[in-house]
Amino acid sequence: MNDTLGRPLRNLRLSVTDRCNLRCEYCMPEDDYVWLPREDVLHFEETSALVDVFLSLGVDKIRLTGGEPLLRRDVAALVQMIAAKPGLKDLALTTNGVLLADQIDALKAAGLARITVSLDTLYPDRFLKLTRVDQLEAVHAGIAAASRVFGRLKIDTVVIRGVNDDELIPLIEYGRAVNGEIRFIEYMDVGGASRWSPERVVSRQDMLDALARHYGVIVPIDEPASSAPANRYALEDGTTFGIIASTTDPFCRTCDRSRLTADGMWYLCLYATRGVDLRAPLRAGVPVDELQALVSGGWGARADRGAEDRLALGDRRAFVPVQDLLRKDPHLEMHTRGG
Ligand code: SAM
User: Fold this and answer.
1) Which of 20, 22, 115, 156 to mutate to test the pocket of ligand 1 (most atoms within 8 A of CB)?
2) pTM, to two decimals
3) Are the beta carbons of 23 and 31 closer than 8 angstroms?
4) Which of 70, 225, 254, 316 fits a 20 to 30 Å CA distance from 60?
5) Distance 281 CA to ligand 1 centre (A)
6) Residue among 330, 272, 281 nearest 299 (CA)
7) Cα–Cα dist 160/164, whole Å
8) For atom 7 of ligand 1, which residue has the closest CA?
9) Ligand 1 atom 23: the closest Cα is on which residue?
């Protein structure tokens, strides 16, 4: 199943809730949002049925996300339903880590293969300012638990100039100590990133320069067959890390990911303003081949290159008035469609 640019349908990001227990300033800084109506949120059986449709058409990697996926009650039960499916090669989950320590054993037992924890700062006061919640200790506990139970993990850090760009080295050292590979992410102007401006973006090149000043030689790791968004690098002592240059060097050309929201809307690009409603036909009881036709037709027509289009706008994009639109349609938010 290839799209119009020859990109295969392979990676599915499954948002299991639009709710979050943090209010990160670059993602969902407001107190309140237009939330998805509760009755629209898919039951696990419905999500599982849609997952079957995607698996039958070529998806073999799934990542659970949100919102904060660990806020979804008994998410381990969903993990268990999905992990057992034939054809699935990888099942991962991205979390802010606050509730992770309590759920890690259940997630592992349910068959989760990999875990990524988001962590932007090691300073408690900064964490509070950035997320508006005093939970850094809980995140550390979650990371320690993930390291113990899974052996290793990934740690995602959004780098913002003037906020945490002085923590690249401490975070690499922290990652080394907890067996976590750091992924530095360039700040993106997605959904609720209403405080985004080009000046606040720290580019991959800036990050590499800063790291090289401290560590010396940094060697790129060649992964030719990979469609993963991160470029990976190794320090002289073998420590590895990644950088996702989604703002200055988007990976649209190899992007094989799409997103299913908790209420069953399917988005073919993080920046897409329209999605395909899979909940309505599913609940109407249409035969599986009709759902398959919806997905294969959608993917076959896919021409999205959202991040490249944004880049082509140059600095003007900071002034795109997304705020009004966002308030009307929660699906446009990053926390609804899953980061
Ligand atoms: N709540 C979970 C978490 O914190 O990891 C999963 C959802 S969160 C939306 C997924 C990822 O998107 C996080 O790593 C977050 O840092 C990233 N993200 C959110 N807004 C972003 C932005 N404006 N630029 C870059 N990454 C962003």
Assistant:
1) 156
2) 0.95
3) yes
4) 70
5) 30
6) 272
7) 6
8) 66
9) 188
Query: Whose C-alpha lies nearest to ligand 1, atom 19?
Result: 27
E-strand stretches of the chain: 11-15, 61-65, 90-95, 114-118, 153-159, 180-186, 218-220, 231-235, 240-244, 257-260, 265-267, 276-277
- Is residue 215 within 8 A of residue 235, CB to CB? The reply is yes
Stretch 268-287: mean pLDDT: 95
Structure tokens at 47: 């999500």
Q: Tell which residue, 77, 127, 129, has the closest CA to residue 98.
A: 127
pLDDT digits (tens, 9 = 90+) for 278-295: 999 999 999 999 999 999
Q: How far apart are CA 156 and CA 159, in angstroms?
A: 10
Say what the pLDDT of residue 300 is. Answer: 97
Handedness of CA 142, 144, 147, 148 (dihedral sign): negative
Nearest CA to ligand 1 atom 2: 95
For the CA of 335, the nearest atom of ligand 1: 9
The CA 339 to ligand 1 mean position distance, Å, reads 5
Nearest-angstrom CA–CA distance, 155 and 1: 31
Lining ligand 1 with CB less than 6 A are 20, 26-27, 65-66, 68, 94-96, 118, 156, 158, 185, 187-188, 190, 193, 334-335, 339
Q: Are strands 240-244 and 180-186 parallel, antiparallel or unpaired?
A: parallel
How confident is the model over 24-77, as pLDDT tens digits? 999 988 888 889 999 999 999 999 999 999 999 999 999 999 999 999 999 999
CA distance linking residue 135 with residue 35, whole number of Å: 23
